[in-house]
Known about the structure:
The chain is an alpha/beta fold and 391 residues long. It is 38% helix and 15% strand. The longest helix has 19 residues, at 256-274.
Amino acid sequence: MKKNNYENICSEVDVNSIESYVPMAPDIVQTTSFHFSNYEEFIDYSSDEKNHFVYTRGSNPTIKSLENKLAELEHGEKCKVFSSGMGAISATLFTLLQAGDHLLMINTIYGEAVSFGKYLSKYGVICDRVDVDSTEEISKYIKPETKMIYFESPSSQKFEMLDLDKVVSIAKKNNIYTAIDATWASPIFQSPLDHGIDVVIHSLSKYLGGHSDSVGGCVIGKEKIVNDIFEHGHQALGSVISPFNAWLTIRGLRTLPVRMKQFDSSIRYVLDAIKDDERIEKIYHPYVSTGEQKKIADKYLTGYGSLFGLDFKDKNFDKLKIFVNSLKVVSIGVSWGGFESLALPSFKGNNEANLKERGLPISHVRLYVGLENPETIVEDLKQAMDRAYKK
Ligand SMILES: *Cc1c(COP(=O)(O)O)cnc(C)c1O
């Protein structure tokens, strides 16, 4: 029997020897590690994994390509990508804070991020999450130990905005890091680094990936800060994105501006159609905000994200169930940012106290306007409201 020469067959696949090619889509470099051409190169590369390809837990060409694109989109010096938004958030807090520091979280924030902030108390980091009516009010909560102001603008759930210039000025006066989770606006509609924010975080699982098929996160900022987060938060916690998910996100970025343009137009259409409906008590979205909130939205946003919240006047749980179950185009699901419109009621039948704490009635629903025809989405919302709540 003929014996296969596995050394030759398996050790290396040189596709260039098959025929030279230039692919239209970028390569997926799906590998764990990389060859070194000699001993000296190995010594050189492995002493600086940030800037050389050694092992994919550190860096990888497909992931690097995504990082370069994200840094440029967000007007930042450097970007590090993670396997999830939470991977990026935990690595950032883990790296930039230490025992004795005070972490100040402002307004409503992605729940898991607040949980992690509070969890850091076991390492001696004290986390306060506070609600403010105006950006100036943040000053009230600054302590000598405050090391970081962490926020979202617009914020999760209530979609309230903070004045970025004022946050930066308060932080600079007190020598404090500023970190924003800017997932809602994406880099297309807001540029926090241009206003002096230190660190911008995105969940790539939402608009940036954009197709509900890959989870990821990123941190963008000054090279020195991102290198620090790479060396500690990324390398130690190991929240590494796969080259394939990085590749899917690059695919998402190619249509990001056209998708964002559509989301902006669709959300205006949907909100215009329902904002005066007498069955709705309140809508949470910068497009329908007033006063100071409206001024901040006009100053910082060049377009609107399509995630919003609403409260129905009628607080009956059974009617809320009828509304949610009557939706046909809009489906029930967590996350957002893909093609499909989504509804996510906050009340689960047993968490009224928790909602009260967050200032939300049990009739609160988070809605995401996707890429379906906006007229179809409005029709769907209206027929479900008609079924549940009499006019
Ligand atoms: C989804 C989300 C996150 C968490 O991102 P994952 O990729 O799911 O870990 C953080 N912040 C905001 C605002 C989000 O919407």
